Amino acid sequence: PFEHQARAGDRWLMADIEERPQIIYTLVTRGPTVVLAEYAGADGTFQQVVIQMLSKIEVTGEWKSYLYDEYALHCLMEEGTGLWFVCMADRAMGRRIPFAMLSALKESFKQWYGPAQIASAVGYSMQTDFEGELQCLVDKYNAPDADRLASLMHKVQDINDNLKENFDKIMERQDNVDTLVNRCQMLHDSSISFRRETERVRLAVWWRNARMLACISVMVILAVIFLVMASCGFSM
């Protein structure tokens, strides 16, 4: 079971790496043709493609990016030494991480080698010593936590989404409360109207009963008077 879990974890890790944009090839050159050291993180004909592209690039001493199908070639050129720090990455990776890696590569390379060594170096003369450093830098900037800004933005977006969801729930509850208050107000108004109508009906019934009672009383009194008058010999 443990071996199965380990294999599943490895497959998940490899799938995550394949889906995430990567720096796939990096190299240091003197000018467009003399490759001093390189590292490829994936199989392919990246070297031939990059060398062909470098031969067509104008030396400006600026940070340049060029698109090639689903890839992007990023160059950091140093006019004084003639060094070119180059990498090819997935196009979806953008420019920020590749150029951050190239800046770190430039600093590291100049710590390893002095101007005299750089000027006299021939092709691949630094490959054996510096390939490991290239791999370390590529692995570092390909790591999921390399783009801290994107990670923070993702966390902020998650927080924002949660806040919006909670706010929507609060507003929904508020709507329900408002509806309940309106219904309570309607019930209150209805109860007041019912009480008023009940009081009106009660008074109407009372007055009707009072009039009826008054009429009966008058009729009884008149009957008594007639009876008394008849018994006393009065005639109408």
Q: How would you describe this structure to a colleague?
A:
The structure is a single chain. Helix 3 (96-112) packs antiparallel against helix 5. This protein has a five-stranded antiparallel β-sheet, with helices on both faces. With 236 residues, the chain is α+β, with helices and mostly antiparallel strands. The protein contains six helices and five strands, in the order H-E-E-H-E-E-E-H-H-H-H. The protein has helices spanning 2-19, 46-54, 96-112, 115-120, 127-142, 148-231; strands at 23-30, 34-40, 63-68, 71-78, 83-90.
Which features characterize this protein?
single chain, 236 residues, alpha+beta, five-stranded antiparallel sheet, 6 helices
Write the layout of secondary structure elements.
Blueprint: H1 2-19, E1 23-30, E2 34-40, H2 46-54, E3 63-68, E4 71-78, E5 83-90, H3 96-112, H4 115-120, H5 127-142, H6 148-231
Antiparallel strand pairs: 1-2, 1-5, 3-4, 4-5
Q: Which range best describes the helical content: under 10%, 10-25%, 25-40%, 40-55%, 55-70% or over 70%?
A: 55-70%
Provide the residue-averaged pLDDT.
80
The spatial strand order of the largest sheet comes to 2-1-5-4-3
- How many strands appear in the DSSP assignment? 5
- Helix-strand pattern, N to C? HEEHEEEHHHH
Shape estimate:
rod-shaped
Tell me the number of helical segments per DSSP (H or I, 4 or more residues long).
6
- Please give the alpha-carbon distance between the first and last residues: 126 Å
Mind telling me the C-alpha Rg? Answer: 48 Å
TL;DR?
64% of the residues lie in helices and 16% in strands. It is built from six helices and five strands.
